[in-house]
Amino acid sequence: MGFLKYALRKLGLMVVTLAIIASATFFLVNAVPGNPIAARTLRMPETVKAELYAKYGFDKPLWPRYVITMRGLLRGDFGMSAVYEGDTVPNIIASKLPVSARLGLQQMLVGVTLGILLGVVSALKNGRAADFAIIALAAFAVSIPQLVFSLLLQKFFAGAKTGLPIIGWSGFKSTILPTIAGAFVYTSFYARLMKSSILDVIGQEYIMTAESKGISGFRVVTRHVLRNAFVPIITYLPMTVAMCVTGSFFVESVFTIPGLGYYYVKSVQQRDLSMVMGLTVFIAALLLAVVFVTDILYKLVDPRIRLERAGKR
Amino acid sequence: MRRRTLALTLALALLTGVVAGCGAQDGSSPSAPTQTGADENGSGAAPQNTGDTAAPEDSDGGEKLAAVQELNLLLFDNRVYSLDTGASHNPFEWHILGQTGEGLFRVFADENGFDVRELAGAESYEISDDGLTYTFKLRDHNWEDGAPVTAQNYVDAFVRVHTPENAFTYSFFYQDIVNAAEALAGAVPPTEIGVRAVDDKTLEIKLTAPAPYFLDKLTLPVYYPVRADLIGADTDSSWGSSIEKTISNGPFKFAEWVRDTSVTLVKNPEYWDADSVRLEKVTLTVVNEDSTRAQLFNAGQLDVVSGAADYFATWKAQADAGEIVRVERFNGRLARLDFPWEGGTTGLTNNLKIRQALSLAIDRQEAVDLAFNGLQLPAYGLYPTGVSISGTPVRELVSEPLTELAAQYVNDDAALRKLFDDGLAEEGFEGTRADVTLSFFTTDVVESLKVLQEYIKQTWETKLGINVNIDLVTDQGLAYQKMLGFEYDVAYSNNISTDYNDPYHWASIWSSTGGTAQYFGGYNSPRYDAALSSLAAESDPAKRAEIYAELERILVAEDYQIVPIYYSQLEYFAQPYIRNFDFTSLVSPYEYSRAYIVEH
């Protein structure tokens, strides 16, 4: 019973958060002067201008528009793009999310795996040359702008020499460079996370116990250190997954990939209000859902939380 | 980090936007020396179906056709919003719709880069003696699904455009037509406009007043025939939102459209002149980064490139060596400065003498040499190169009003200062020129334009001894607010492209009743308006040219309402194996329905 109540409370909180995010987005986007259709009304007769404003709801004051927008969101109606004639948020998500999701997951898979490996090596070689090299590399990877890195990869690794396409998104080959371009962000984060986590675990008493029992160093690392050191990694992973599927502007832009990240940034630039609203709410909902599921799973899995509860009773 | 991302993003978007904006406007044929097909039929003459009999495997001009007839072009980003002809509103959309659709006319480029109108969907036409009734005889031709193109298809298109609920951006464009304005105002039903199908193959359009430029207005794809049976309700705005929701009657048809990414066209076998269409496939791809464009072009994966200025020096050398083709052409745009007619930050530029001093102080040649390496043409008038009056280039009939005055004043700082001082005195300004700080409003972050604007600022500061603040606003919404509120003393502007091949397009922008002048300073001159309306009764090209000259003189050299700086020219590089690729200048950037690729 206690668990159900906990879940419901979390769910309620999630809905409230989403409503706040939606409202904040609405007012922020509307606080900036101008709208996406002003440029098009330059030479329009007044009646047509009025029709156009009415078509996208710009004829109404802010508050009625807010009510209409929020009511629409509740019904899952995100409205129509004011820039792309006839486009809707579900259309865009259906066509662009799979692309961004694949790219993001590939980047994550490569990046996180590499990060974990490097993290382990770095922790085990703590304070030695290999460790410094890895940490320096991680710092470098995280500080080089993705735009620059993408362009460099494209310039030096795409084309006839390697057979990798310069731009485009068709077939596995075309995904290789974009995957690498975005992978190292995860690598550096997870390498550092893994390292500190392992060092943390190594210092624990049960490791000393294991070692003192005469278990071989390799077995200590695989059975005791790594298993426990993975806990923070597993906590972070769901969030990383949720974030990565929403795309990356620069990688998508450089390699001409029809993903969500590029579209999202562009819709903000174009002040395409309904699309910005719809996509923001969608992405926020996605992240919140992941947080929710993680919270629930965490509670189910982590015995300490359960024990605490039992103790309280 | 986020701020940097945002700034970069913004810079990137503006850069691509502006570069694309210039990039697509103009040009010529990269194959000028060997050009064969595009001009054969001549202006206005009906090209016969049998006119170009060369089968794809034939050689042309001694050159063998390549086995693969595929063209790869840039798709200018940010601009293709809809494939609905009625809703279309920019040259990037028109470029594609012009290749997949067929209206009454098509536009090709002549060897000098001037647009040439040819009969296309129309076989012939007649204009009544009073200049009010246009009757078009349609050619027997079909849609891609085999249905015949009928006059009713055209009527449906015009009705759609004039349905106020559709709120199409270019609905204002055909107000020469009887009842068009009334339909848009909701006073009469859109079906009452002066366009009717006399029979299946005869289209009649009635105008309210003679408009010698009306045929040129019919080069815009906005009115291209539509299939009401497929569109359904007039207000269905999803028409054109995907390739399934559009249909072709032109040289090409849609194979794929990936939003923001690429458009793929393939040859339309149902096209009436399909024999002249030798390209099998045209792929247009968004490429945001200059370095990527360069890499693709150098690898032969892009056939025409523009907007990658860093690479121009290398390409120029290659072009000089004959390895690639360089094309330099005008593109029907005027870069200029606007003054607020009333109001403004200081109000000083409401004064004629001050405007005059500011205009005459600028050495336009030096400015374009410095900022554009001489590519752009210094401007001393209103009508850009490329615009014609009834087929004659405007500058053969109308000379630029500012040329001599500018030469006289440009090195005479004393005279310029006197003008400015007199202006200050007239305005009752307390203080000297050194106390004046003008606000110079601009929206451009492209490097060359920054150089230009900085040059203008320094010129004014040095020659006139005043202060100038550059007020850079990169957000479009904010920019429009400033424009409409006249929150500037002088504004840089290059935001108008030529919609149809007649100076009237440019002259009418500064009409006090046209609705556009308010965006560009709010010019309001009864004398100018009167001269403009006197055009309505005039159909003789020579007389029209006189009135156009007068309008230009009033605006540029008497009222000094705008400061012309340069007429845009663009530089393209093309692969050497492309033939008959026309860079048209005014409505659409390219025309390649007769292009082909030779063996290489």
Report on the structure:
The complex is a heterodimer of chains A (313) and B (600). With 313 residues, chain A is mostly helical. Chain A folds into two domains: 18-75, no CATH class; 89-312, MetI-like fold (Orthogonal Bundle). Chain A is 76% helix and 0% strand. Chain A has 13 helices and no strands. Chain A has helices spanning 2-31, 46-55, 62-75, 89-124, 129-143, 146-157, 173-202, 205-212, 217-244, 249-254, 260-269, 273-301, 303-312. In chain A, helix 6 crosses helix 7 (173-202), helix 7 (173-202) crosses helix 9 and helix 8 (205-212) packs antiparallel against helix 9 (217-244). The longest helix of chain A is centred in the middle third of the chain and has 36 residues, at 89-124. Chain A is flat and about 85 Å long. By secondary structure, chain B is α+β, with helices and mostly antiparallel strands. Chain B has two domains: 60-324 and 575-597, D-Maltodextrin-Binding Protein, domain 2; 332-569, Roll (Dipeptide-binding Protein, domain 3). Chain B contains 18 helices and 21 strands. Chain B has helices at residues 2-23, 91-100, 151-161, 180-184, 214-217, 228-231, 290-298, 312-320, 352-361, 364-372, 394-397, 403-409, 413-426, 447-464, 476-485, 504-509, 526-534, 541-558, and strands at 70-74, 105-109, 115-119, 122-127, 133-138, 195-199, 202-206, 252-258, 262-267, 281-285, 304-305, 325-338, 377-378, 388-389, 392-393, 437-442, 467-472, 490-493, 562-574, 578-579, 596-597. In chain B, the strands form six sheets. In chain B, strands 11, 12, 13, 16, 17, 18 and 19 form a seven-stranded mixed beta sheet that branches. A four-stranded mixed beta sheet of chain B has the order 1-10-9-8, with no helix packed on it. A four-stranded antiparallel beta sheet of chain B has the order 4-5-7-6, with helices on one face. In chain B, strand 8 and strand 9 (262-267) form a beta hairpin. The interface between A and B is large, with 53 and 60 residues.
